[in-house]
Amino acid sequence: MRGLGISFGVARGVAGAVVLLLLLFVPVLSGAWAETGGGPLLAEFDARPFSVEEKRVLQIGLTVSGSYRGLIDGAWGARSQQAMEAFVAETDADAAATGLVFGYHAAEIGRRAYDFLSQTGLSYRGGPPVAHRLLAPPGAFVPGEHPDWGEFVLEDRDVEIRVFQTAPGLAAILHRVMLDGFPAYAEPYTVRRSGRLVTALDEGGARWYVRSDLDPLRPGAWNTTMVVLQPGGDRRIFEVIVGSLGSDPDADVLGNDARLTGLVRAWLAVGEEEAPAAPEAVTAAVPERGDSGGLHPLRGTGTGFFVNNTDLVTARHVVEDCRAVTLLDGTALSIVAVHPGLDLALLSSPARSRDWIPLHRTGKAALGQPVIALGYPYFGQVNTALNSTLGNVSALVGYHDDPDAITVSAPIQPGNSGGPLLSSDGTVIGVVVAQIAKIEFAEETGSLPENINYAVTGEALLGFLEAEGASLPRLSGEPPDLREGVPDAVQRAVVPVLCEG
């Protein structure tokens, strides 16, 4: 179909024409990588020429990628280098076999960091009332519940940050209360030394980090910062804030960063006819034709949706034969299970989603019921926005009377593969997988088919996920009325899935 999709294996028409089209968009790649010769991208990575600011950015990128958990201080030691090597082992098997880290790995890590900072709005904050310097989300620190402690609070949807100025006894009490308030089986991380107290707890998905330092300018006073991961909050944001927390009054990630931003721009130019214009500060890069933002060329894009805070569903053919599967921000996804017969795949994300879509209680569709298809058709060519189309269940079977599929009239296009089909109560009633191949069908029959599209049934989806042991939270509270539009939370749960080849 002229590069617009992949034909569905054995499904053929009356005279042998392919009549099903899988909805995976495959872009055409340019030869820019070969033309540039790689340059610094193919040089072996050496952290020494990079500035402290650039090394902080790399530590942020490694943290966001799940390869690093430590101080974001720009001091590049064995731990940071080992995290780079772990990143390469996880994302680039060919390079890992050589035992080397290359410039393009640093470029990709830098790209992820700059994207993350742009998307989250995190920036370095310091000065009264914040004694420690740290990366923090936008917003003001406002007086808290304990003015006698000099408490100020910044509350965000992902994290809560509290700062205190206390006497030594109160600082010690705060850390002891933290430990006493958690079950004995929780394994805290603690530091107890002259001039510094640290208590960190990670229990049941909840996370707390408290650090107290003796104030060098006020004898006997202690500065305390507490960071709490909000329910459903982005764990990466918590990790980056905690890692950045320190006493360097000049800590920053901007300025003196020409080497790294130049490397990132060269990396973004791979697969493009020319590199994008250099911004004042590197901002989030949306993958375009031939640029997945990952370590391999972009083969195609599909759609996925979260069914709990870590697991996503998509179509099997979206992730088939991919060397890496990622989200738009570069987060690497693991393939937990696939079902070739149903054309379904279960993926896992290391970054928690605050939103997911519940499945329909029975998964059973009714003939004629209204449905909404959500997805990212022609992602990066037409637009990069989530698209919504309306239709009805037009048949309770799929192609050739397939009982595990339903036929729907909601318009869908290449790139919709793996997207959710929603019932009127906002629950998932199916997974979009294919459409009729109109031109081939018309050539064989003389009639152009319209609005004949296919989705895996909700019943088959439920069976697949239950067999794999996936957690399936049920709908709580009143169901949304989709006649008023698709709720923001549902929109956030549907994401582009990138296949890197």
Describe the protein's architecture and organization:
It is built from twelve helices and 23 strands. The chain is of the alpha+beta class. Strands 5-6-7-11-10-9-8 form a seven-stranded antiparallel sheet, with helices on both faces. A six-stranded antiparallel barrel has the order 17-18-19-22-21-20. It has a six-stranded antiparallel barrel with strand order 12-13-16-15-14-23. Strand 5 (142-143) and strand 6 (152-155) form a beta hairpin. The longest helix has 18 residues, at 103-120.
For the largest beta sheet, what order do the strands appear in spatially? 5-6-7-11-10-9-8
Counting DSSP H or I runs of 4 or more residues, the number of helices is: 12
Number of strands: 23
What is Rg?
Answer: 25 Å
Class by alpha and beta content: alpha+beta
Q: Indicate the low-confidence ranges by residue numbers.
A: 1-19, 24-37, 271-294
Largest sheet data: 7 strands, antiparallel
Distance between the termini: 20 Å
Mean pLDDT: 81
Percentage of residues in strands: 25-35%
Helical amount among residues, as a percent range? 10-25%
Shape: globular
Which characteristics define this entry?
23% helix; 23 strands; 7-stranded antiparallel β-sheet; 6-stranded antiparallel β-barrel; 501 residues; alpha+beta
Short description:
By secondary structure, this protein is of the alpha+beta class. The protein is built from 12 helices and 23 strands. The strands form 4 sheets. A 7-stranded antiparallel beta sheet has the order 5-6-7-11-10-9-8, with helices on both faces. The chain has a 6-stranded antiparallel beta barrel with strand order 17-18-19-22-21-20. The protein has a 6-stranded antiparallel beta barrel with strand order 12-13-16-15-14-23.
